[in-house]
Amino acid sequence: MSRLITRAIALLEKIPHSLIAFIARFSIAAVFWKSGQTKVEGLAIDLIDGSFQLGWPRLADSTIPLFKSEYHVPLLSPEIAAHMAAFAEHFFPLLILIGFATRFSALALLGMTLTIQLFVYPDAYPTHGTWAAVLLYLTATGPGKLSIDHLIARRFAN
């Protein structure tokens, strides 16, 4: 029985980091991108359902009232917090998806996750813990070979 378990573990250890990292990047980018899409109008890109509208993004009419009533972020006005969140939820997921400045972007979204956990939805720790685990994984291990970061590292390795 222990030989079977040892062989199974050896097989599982062959799952490439690059595959795990790509799935992690795609998944966490989708979480934040979709959240960002609820905050803006004029730009809609969803690779899963195929919706596509290019335009200059602007805050949706419901965004600032939501930051006034539900998303109480300390030290920032609702207007500034809404703009910062909408920007961050589009910019950093895009960087993570293509694997550029991945570790920095993962840290930025981890900071956002901690802010949401502490000040907005403290009861949602199972969800936020999952996000944090993925973001910490990417921060610790990097984006893998299917990334711009990897190409840059190879280019400047010598």
TrEMBL record:
<dbReference type="GO" id="GO:0005886">
    <property type="term" value="C:plasma membrane"/>
</dbReference>
<keyword id="KW-0472">Membrane</keyword>
<keyword id="KW-1003">Cell membrane</keyword>
<dbReference type="Pfam" id="PF07681">
    <property type="entry name" value="DoxX"/>
</dbReference>
<dbReference type="InterPro" id="IPR032808">
    <property type="entry name" value="DoxX"/>
</dbReference>
<feature type="transmembrane region" description="Helical">
    <location>
        <begin position="131"/>
        <end position="148"/>
    </location>
</feature>
<keyword id="KW-1133">Transmembrane helix</keyword>
<feature type="transmembrane region" description="Helical">
    <location>
        <begin position="94"/>
        <end position="119"/>
    </location>
</feature>
<dbReference type="InterPro" id="IPR051907">
    <property type="entry name" value="DoxX-like_oxidoreductase"/>
</dbReference>
<comment type="similarity">
    <text>Belongs to the DoxX family.</text>
</comment>
<keyword id="KW-0812">Transmembrane</keyword>
<protein>
    <submittedName>
        <fullName>DoxX</fullName>
    </submittedName>
</protein>
